[in-house]
Amino acid sequence: MDLPITAVEKGKPVHFKNPPKAFYEAIGGEEGMKELMYNFYDKIYESKIAHFFPQDEEEFEEVKKKNSKFFIQICGGPKVYENESKGMELNEYMIRIHDDFSINENNRIEWLGTMREALADKAQHVDIGLIREFWEYLEAFSKLTVNNFADGSTYYAAYTQVKED
Ligand code: HEM
């Protein structure tokens, strides 16, 4: 699928909008989103970023569950992630979760490439325009998870760097 990736630039404001609810509905609601995300994580375990994630099966299952809930809510579905984010705005909370990991541009590209494969498997029946809108959110938002840069420096995105359109 022709879903482009543009380079992260340290400290540069990132514009994005949350994915449309129409994508969530087209993928098959809660169940469909769960299938997409479980497939994504199966692929993550075959990827170059597998070592970032828990190797313990039960812990891995927890990550899959929480990840599915986040995407259900961020796409406008039921607020099933609300209790996890402790009242914080969902995207802001998600940026802070990633501060605990040392993530560089190559890791981000691998994450996005893995998601692109999962989308190709699971979203064949979904309108390409909706897939693109979902992708635009991922491609932009993922820039805010990168905190290690090629010059060896670290930078943790401030929420003020975020520009929600
Ligand atoms: C659009 C970009 C991304 C989104 C929306 C996203 C979303 C998520 C979500 C929802 C979780 C589970 C949070 C929870 O525990 O409640 C998570 C965990 C995690 N993500 Fe991401 N992620 C993104 C990019 C990345 C990238 C680029 C990496 C690179 C390695 C990454 C690595 C991780 C790791 C290591 C965890 C934690 C696993 C654990 O709990 O041990 N994520 N992410």
Automatic annotation (TrEMBL):
Keywords: Heme, Iron, Metal-binding, Transport. GO terms for molecular function: heme binding; metal ion binding; oxygen binding; oxygen carrier activity. It comes from the Bacteria. Belongs to the truncated hemoglobin family. Group II subfamily. This is Globin.
